[in-house]
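INFO  loader      accepted 1 record
INFO  loader      residues=146
INFO  predictor   begin
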Amino acid sequence: MEGLGEPEEIRVLKEKLRYRGEQFVDKGQWLVDIMAVIWKQDLELLDPATVAAWPWISVISNTWRGAKQRLTAGKLLLTARDYLEKVDFAPAALRKNRAASGKLLLSAAWAMDAAATLFCENTSSLTYDDPEMIRYLTFFENATSR
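INFO  predictor   done
INFO  writer      dumping tokens
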């Protein structure tokens, strides 16, 4: 490895961070924009006194939060890639700039860890919608079967 530049594994990692980061930012922003419209529409249409209103509002708010988590996680992945871009991986450069390179690598790891935490929280929060959605659908099922 001596005398070589960036290892292939680092190049692949940076490409994956860029691809996934952009993907999550795009999809997260798309869903945030949709949820903003749905939030406004549904709050105007739903009567808070209706039994179905609050479960549906809960589903909408959870989806909106998830969209923002996805957007933020994507930005964190892109930030991790930016940190890695600043590191000169040539062995001589790494030896010369150990402290600065180490700080950049640690910052990239922290950004990836924070993104992973958001993904986990987002995924686990999806189960909150199940009981709320069942209540919402049951209300309408009962209303139409009368």
